[in-house]
Amino acid sequence: METRIINLRELDQEAASAVYAEAAAVIRSGGMVAFPTETVYGLGANALDEEASARIYAAKGRPSDNPLIAHIADKKQLYEIAEYVPDTAELLMKTFWPGPLTMIFRKKEIVPYGTTGGLDTVAVRMPDHPVALSLIRAAGVPIAAPSANLSGRPSPTTADHTAEDMDGRIEMILDGGPCEIGIESTIVDMTEDIPVILRPGYITQEMLCRLLGEVKVDQALDPSRWKNFRPKAPGQKYKHYAPKAPMTLIEGNTTDVVKKILELAEERIKEKKKVGIICTDETQDYYSHGVIRSIGSRIRMESVAHNLYDILRTFDDIGVDMIYSEAFDFDELGYAIMNRMLKAAGHKVIRAGKTEEVTD
Ligand code: TXA
Ligand code: MG
Asked: CA Rg, the chain, in Å?
């Protein structure tokens, strides 16, 4: 199939409207359109059409028990697909929609099991991006959209990333520039009495608690317990976000971490290996050997989220043999970032310092 890639930033309003009309027609006839959101690029199809959802799974190579998020542009669409919307969800919507928050509700019959991976619940999100919202409005249906990567690869945060994975597999890619946030939405299960975070994201537990008082975190997300619990979001159990080269995280205080990475890199380079190093603006100057990339600044964790997937893809393109990365603290946005980095590293962590240990 030929994939049309359309750069919306080069078009005037009239030409853009024509593109949205065309993309909406693709969606309504069961086809697929990739589009930008504020988090990552999504691979969209009609959420109410089981066959369209099946095409998404095929295009991504994704296991079909892994449910899709329905993207809406208007609150009215939520009541059309969710059986029951608790007051707590109304409160969250007022503050965080449109935005990087996905909520899970009991589904209405109109939502096919092919979209929800066989579950009686549906995940819903109103993205905060003009291209996403225009497309959903033009299509007139909720749009099911997973991240637009091939299953197992890092999520795409640019149209180029999306094309790398999806060219030839889908009808259209709408290029709306790089995604601002760079990691996927926070997912909260609203079907429990006390809402539960199933995937951490830009909206943190602290932000949710400020509004609701109490919000739990799925215990399978606890990094020390990841082996013992089955995550409630099916997607969380798969190896994910992974670069091609094996990656190891190094945690500890910054001086010890830099020293340890220098030591490891030196050993590998002696073995003629090509070593990728993920550092930060604050530590970049301490490194001299290997392929060194700063992921952003430790005092602006948003920059780290923004660059994370792009860096992993860059190392794929360069073709390094292994990646050593500085780790981050688990507080606030760091929690979501470490959730993705631990997966990318297959949970391989070295603690630098006096009591060095390797965990995996
Ligand atoms: O930011 C985002 O959420 C992006 C953009 C495109 O909106 N989308 C995204 O979709 O990350 P995806 O399919 O890559 O991840 C959706 C996650 C998966 O882990 C899936 O298992 C979980 O949401 N999920 C979806 N519906 C669910 C449900 N009914 N119950 C539990 N987990 C659900
Ligand atoms: Mg994904």
From this structure: 21
